[in-house]
Amino acid sequence: MPEHLVAYHREGEIALIEIDNPPVNALSAAVRQGLAEAMVRLAADPEARAAVLFCAGRTFVAGADVSEFGKPPVAPILPDVITGIEASLKPVIAALHGTVLGGGLEVALGAHYRVALPGTRLGLPEVTLGLLPGAGGTQRLPRAIGFEAAAELITSGRQIDAEEAERLGLIDVLADETDPRAAGLTFTRGLLADGCGPHRLSERASPAPQPDRVAGFRAEVERKTRGQVAPLRALDTLVESMGMSFAEGMAHERRAFRDLMQTPQRAALVHAFFAERRAARQEDLAGVSACQVDRIGIVGGGTMGQGIAAAALIAGLQVTLVERDDASADRAMAGIGKMLDGAVKRGKLNADTRLQLLAQRLQAAADYDALSNVDLVIEAAFEDLAVKQEVFRTLDRVCRPGTVLATNTSYLDVNLIADATGRPQDVIGLHFFSPANVMRLLEIIVADRTPPEVTATAFALAKRMGKIGVRSGVCDGFIGNRMLSTYRAAADHLVLDGATPYQVDAAVRAFGFAMGPYQVGDLAGLDIGYATRQRKAATRDPRERVPVFADRLAEAGRLGRKTGRGYYIYDDAAPQGRPDPEMEAVLNGIRRDLGITPRSFTEAEIQDRYMAAMVNEGAKILDEGIAARASDIDVVLLHGYGFPRWKGGPMHWAEAEGLDRIAARIQSLAEDDPYFWQLSPLLARLAAEGDGFADASKQKELT
Ligand code: T1G
Question: How close is the Cα of 644 to the center of ligand 1, in Å?
């Protein structure tokens, strides 16, 4: 047995089977082998009357080893290991702590009893990886907690806490020990004293689903998981197998599991899972120590400043927020209080903690001197270079040497902001996404003179705040907003050439985005895009196509939802917006003035152009070294711009689509508009060589 992964000991008449496979006790082939052998030892051990199965480290098994997915299965497969546990003639008690997920919960369900420590969380998140529980979860969970509760947990993939698990009957006891080994021994001693034997879920009859309720539930799952394959397949497998024997049900589950393992969605979701974790890994920062950050300052108490403050408070940081005067400072404090209210409602924070944070860890001031002793400042002032430079001149004067000075700018040149100080080596960009207390994405903008220690500090702060930090170089818009402005321009060109904003939005939603670009524009406010175009007008290349219709709307005061009219009309009849019947006439007038003969576009043509523009810009960002990895670009688009997760991000999607096909599309489009459709040299090279973006990222990491 790989002793170092699965150890077998005994305390009196109780065997102790301990898994120790850091960091999350994933069920790798070696762990499965070790578990199988431990069960053989248990059966052969004449002294042992029962066994406690528990884990070392921070959590019970958190699932199958995701890094094995897509590779040929290695025996023993998990369903067989779990069958071996359940078949034991001696009771096996799973002592649970940490996050008991996926295959980990399935192992626990194969045990005869389950004891959980306070704080334990449990779930079957397989659908979030494009799968369904593939080691008996669809068969044992309904037998443990009933069909409907099992169906909801399996199709949502959500985690529940130990209390809910006890209420559902998923665990037998909520222990009060703090150590799983002790909790398991206590429970098992009681069990043996009562003479209880094994209690197998597989021996229970399967619950019969109620057809009418299933139909309604299925419709709800379809609506919530639009475009995804796994949740509905999981539900259908669950329903179909409830009429079967346990063994037939297991076979049915296995077939579905194998089918889903082969899907592009499973590959995309696993890519996203690892891409998020890879983004935090910065090889060039190995061994670089981050500065200790406990107290942060925030300049600007607008929506962004408040959101950042709320996120920082929840992360346990001390926050000092500076506004221009007391009244503004008070308004900011009130806004932060409301945001923390939201966190309480979402179950992210308890009410007492909220009061403590506001009373003890947050202060607001109208004087920069309040920032003289903080470890790091985040400037969230008005998005104007001169304003930010003035703020940084003041911070330079007020903050102690070594304080990290971060700007929350969403596109401005961080080097120019650093130039306003005498210490550019303390300056970095931290681009939070609104609402900053909810969105996990944080673009970490490393300026020319930002040293490794400051970059390491930014990544440590991101982790502390529960953010997904993605490194970016300095350019207009960094990674996300630069790509947004390009694929948004591609949409505008489609509208200039004959599509309506509504057709573009519908095609983009059909691709998998929750909203199309014009719905997003109406939500954000058309004045933002208008101001950006005005800002760039003086230096705009004459070959650039201007979305005149967008300027017309903004100039007519049609700014989107906030004015009741933008691309869509918002009123009581259609609070979510309805197409404007006059839009076509307005667009045709503009096309006439521009000498454009409009044409129609299919949904596929719209999607092809939208995605080609997005991927092409991503390739340029990668080639210029603004992003270090293609997967980092995917993380930004997944977490900041609503890219459908089950497609993995634009760069992963492009590789699955075929870089050669996308390059050919761009070359064909360049015949009509060579200025906008300039094919990225990197994309051209990879397409010609049949390589993927990962190869380019590897090369970059090597240089
Ligand atoms: N397999 C392999 N590696 C994993 C892993 C897993 N299941 N879970 C985490 N890791 C790695 C992760 O890549 C990172 O590595 C490190 O552990 C810490 O993770 C048969 C088929 C458990 C809540 O979906 O949700 O079972 O970057 O940074 O924030 O039916 O990890 O350090 O090199 O996320 O404290 C089902 C996935 C699998 C759980 C901990 N299980 N993991 O969060 O740490 S499918 C899951 C998580 C399955 C069965 C099916 C989280 C966590 P590195 P981390 P964390």
Answer: 21
- The answer on 515 and 400 residing in a single domain is no
Last residue of a domain, one of 411, 445, 472: 472
Q: Is residue 277, in this structure, part of any structural domain at all?
A: no
For ligand 1, atom 15: residue with the closest CA: 277
Are 214 and 148 in contact by the 8 Å Cβ rule? The answer is no
What's the predicted TM-score (pTM) here? 0.95
What's the domain range around 446?
288-472
- What gap in Å lies between CA 274 and CA 634, rounded to an integer? 11
Domain end residue (candidates: 423, 455, 472): 472
Distance from C-alpha of 13 to C-alpha of 184, rounded to nearest angstrom? 13
CATH number for position 664: 1.10.1040.50
Alpha carbons 632 and 651: distance in angstroms, whole number: 9
From residue 347, give the alpha-carbon distance in Å to each of 59, 116, 343, 468.
22, 21, 6, 21
Q: Which atom of ligand 1 is nearest to the CA of 58?
A: 35
Q: Could you list the active site residues?
A: 106, 126
Which residues' Cβ are closer than 6 Å to ligand 1? 23-24, 26, 62-67, 78, 99, 101-103, 106, 125-126, 129, 131, 133-135, 137, 277
Give how many domains the chain has, as a whole number: 3
The total of other beta-carbon atoms located within 10 Å of residue 149's CB is 19
Give yes or no: residues 199 and 252 share one domain. Answer: yes
What is the mean pLDDT for each group of 10 consecutive residues in the chain (703 residues)? 82 97 97 98 98 98 94 94 98 98 98 97 98 98 97 97 97 95 97 94 93 93 96 97 95 97 97 96 94 97 96 96 95 95 88 91 95 97 94 97 96 96 97 94 98 98 97 96 96 98 98 96 91 89 94 94 95 92 93 95 98 98 96 98 97 97 97 96 96 75 50
